[in-house]
Design goal:
Layout (H helix, E strand, L loop, with lengths): L1 H23 L5 E5 L3 E4 L5 E13 L5 E9 L4 E5 L8 E5 L2 E9 L4 E8 L8 E4 L1
Antiparallel strand pairs: 1-3, 2-3, 3-8, 4-7, 4-9, 5-8, 6-7
């Protein structure tokens, strides 16, 4: 009888731990969508040789994501962040060929956008999002 109980415990406890870790533990899950490039039009309605793109980062998980880092590489790149909440303060740094934005936190279902202007198309291989 003791062996049967030990065998059941050895099977049930690991399965319960795996179930908890997989299904019950809340965690953030970030996804991003990079738009197609469109010709950039200046504020005086003149077309330029630059292109505009939009990167949207969304938390589809069930927990808050903290310290989200978005890195983008591209030629003659400028970028700006449209925050989820107006009170969110984003740390940004850039060079002519790269930009980095550190977003403080994003609740489940929340999203923010990075508006890009570059000389050539930014592909998904030029973007990394981590937290």
């Amino acid at each position: 009888m003791g062996r049967v109980v030990n065998a059941i415990v050895l099977i049930v406890v690991p399965l319960a731990a795996v179930y908890y870790a997989t299904y019950l533990q809340k965690k953030p899950d970030l996804v991003y969508l990079l738009s197609e490039q469109v010709p950039y039009i200046d504020s005086d309605s003149k077309a330029s040789s630059d292109f505009g793109q939009r990167l949207e980062v969304k938390n589809v998980g069930d927990a808050e994501a903290k310290k989200i880092t978005v890195k983008i590489e591209g030629q003659a790149l400028t970028s700006s962040v449209k925050p989820y909440l107006t009170k969110d303060v984003v740390e940004s740094s850039s060079t002519p060929t790269a930009a980095e934005h550190v977003y403080p936190s994003l609740p489940p279902g929340g999203s923010f956008q990075v508006l890009l202007k570059a000389r050539s198309k930014i592909g998904s291989g030029n973007v990394s999002v981590s937290h």
